[in-house]
Structures are given as structure tokens and as C-alpha cells.
Write a structure and sequence with these properties.
single chain, alpha+beta, SH3 type barrels, 7 strands, 32% helix
């Protein structure tokens, strides 16, 4: 069971983080997670006006009014996550391999006699 933790963390991790921002900070071309009263969407802003954000949804132009947004987060590339993820995976694999090799050697019962 404990050996499943590392692969699970690998699949759940990402090199991106989402930072909360205000609607006035929205810029064209950035990726956002937006929460409204009715749904939660992830978009790439195609254009921004004073009152709306325009984007493509299922390859069709769509928009959302800024005053409908309850929560807004901008996607940001995380250098720390990008570096620490492989280091953590390799370190975890080394620890698992070390513990496994010690268990294997402990379980082997060799009855070696010195030569006469």
C-alpha cells in the first residue's frame, strides 16, 4: 500500500500553479480557472474588455461577464515544482529500492561454512 503513494503523487502533480487574481488583472492569452455561481471553467482568454472576457469553448466563441465571476485564478508555470518533482521521484525510488534490498538480504538465510 505504501508503494502506491509515489505513483499517485506523480499523477496528481503538475508543473503549474494557479494564483488568485482580481478581474482587473486579466490579460489576453493567459489561462484561467473561473468559478461562477453556476459552474467552474478553465479558459484561455482570447480578448478582454472592461465588462467581459472572450474565449473559445468547444471551438465556438463564448464570453463571460466579469461581474459573474466569484473566483478567478491565473495559471503560472512553477519552476520549483518542475525541479522538485523529478528530484522527489528519484529520491523516493532510491529509498524504496534501499529498503527493499535490505529486506531481501535479511530474508536470505545463507548457511555458509568456512572451508576446512
Amino acid at each position: 500500500m505504501k508503494y502506491l503513494i509515489l505513483p499517485t503523487l506523480l499523477f496528481l502533480s503538475s508543473c503549474y500553479t494557479y494564483k488568485p487574481i482580481k478581474t482587473a488583472q486579466i490579460t489576453k492569452g493567459e489561462i484561467y480557472k473561473i468559478k461562477t455561481a453556476t459552474n467552474f471553467i478553465k479558459i484561455k482568454a482570447d480578448s478582454v474588455s472592461k465588462t467581459s472576457i472572450y474565449f473559445l469553448k468547444n471551438r465556438k466563441p463564448s464570453s463571460i461577464y466579469k461581474n459573474e465571476i466569484l473566483n478567478l485564478k491565473r495559471r503560472k508555470f512553477s519552476k520549483v515544482k518542475t525541479i522538485l518533482l523529478p528530484v522527489g521521484i528519484i529520491g523516493g525510488l532510491i529509498i524504496i529500492a534501499d529498503k527493499a534490498s535490505k529486506n531481501i538480504l535479511r530474508d536470505i538465510d545463507l548457511d555458509i561454512q568456512p572451508p576446512p
